[in-house]
């Protein structure tokens, strides 16, 4: 069985995204996996400064909560990025963690795909919610996920669950009126189905 870390990038307790995450977790745990949910809105994690002080084996110089989640990120088999769609991409909290993954890179004398370093070699998945449900709603977010997390960092995509039509921008969660929670449960339950 696998160790899964879910990074929750929504600030709304029991909102659409957290409900989606909880359904995913229920399915994954029922399948026998161990899951840890990290609510990024209960942490202080700043974006990368670009100072390069962390290069290859040194921790990030910022004194925030990032270093406290590093052991979970290193020890897990999968990282699930869960975010509401905000300005057509991930929440700032999720983006800050992605930027700070730079501090975990290691020297690699034979880097894959033309990279110059070895990044976290993990499975990953994407869970997203949105009020909009247009054919292009998630294009920008998926593009960022595929470019930054899959192609640059080199994680292995286990799937994406993109859940539009979760209500309007009033903030009232309406995901319970959709089939998304059942889909998230099934996604979690089958994430490592052989």
Give the SSE map.
Elements: E1 3-8, H1 16-30, E2 34-39, H2 66-75, E3 78-84, H3 92-100, E4 123-129, H4 139-153, E5 156-163, H5 180-189
Parallel strand pairs: 1-2, 1-3, 3-4, 4-5
Helix pairs in contact: 1-5
Report on the architecture of this protein.
The chain has one domain (3-189): Flavodoxin domain (Rossmann fold). It is 30% helix and 18% strand. It has helices at 16-30, 66-75, 92-100, 139-153, 180-189, and strands spanning 3-8, 34-39, 78-84, 123-129, 156-163. The chain has a 5-stranded parallel sheet, sandwiched between helices. Helix 1 runs parallel beside helix 5. The longest helix has 15 residues, at 16-30. It is globular.
What oligomeric state is this?
single chain
Q: The CATH topology, please?
A: Rossmann fold
Structural class: alpha/beta
The CATH superfamily bears the name Flavodoxin domain
Q: Roughly what is the average pLDDT, rounded to an integer? A: 91
Strand content: 15-25%
SSE sequence, one letter per element: EHEHEHEHEH
Q: Quick one: biggest sheet?
A: 5 strands, parallel
- Report the end-to-end length measured between terminal Cα atoms: 12 Å
CATH class: Alpha Beta
CATH architecture label name: 3-Layer(aba) Sandwich
Key words describing this protein structure:
Rossmann fold, 5 helices, 194 residues, 30% helix, alpha/beta
Outline of this structure?
The protein is of the alpha/beta class.
């Amino acid at each position: 069985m696998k160790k899964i870390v879910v990074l929750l990038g929504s600030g709304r307790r029991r909102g659409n995204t957290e409900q989606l995450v909880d359904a995913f977790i229920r399915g994954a745990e029922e399948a026998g996996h161990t899951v840890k949910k990290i609510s990024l809105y209960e942490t202080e994690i700043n974006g990368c400064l670009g100072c390069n002080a962390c290069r290859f084996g040194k921790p990030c110089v910022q004194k925030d909560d990032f270093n406290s989640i590093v052991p979970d990120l290193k020890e897990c088999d999968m990282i699930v990025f869960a975010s509401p769609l905000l300005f057509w991409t991930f929440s700032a909290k999720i983006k800050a963690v992605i930027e700070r993954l730079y501090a975990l890179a290691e020297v690699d004398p034979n880097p894959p795909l033309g990279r110059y370093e070895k990044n976290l070699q993990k499975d990953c998945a994407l869970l997203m919610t949105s009020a909009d449900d247009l054919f292009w709603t998630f294009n920008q977010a998926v593009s960022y996920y595929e470019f930054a997390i899959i192609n640059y960092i080199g994680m292995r995509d286990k799937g994406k669950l993109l859940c539009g039509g979760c209500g309007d921008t009033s903030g009232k969660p309406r995901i319970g009126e959709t089939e998304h929670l059942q889909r998230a449960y099934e996604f979690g339950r089958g994430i490592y189905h052989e």
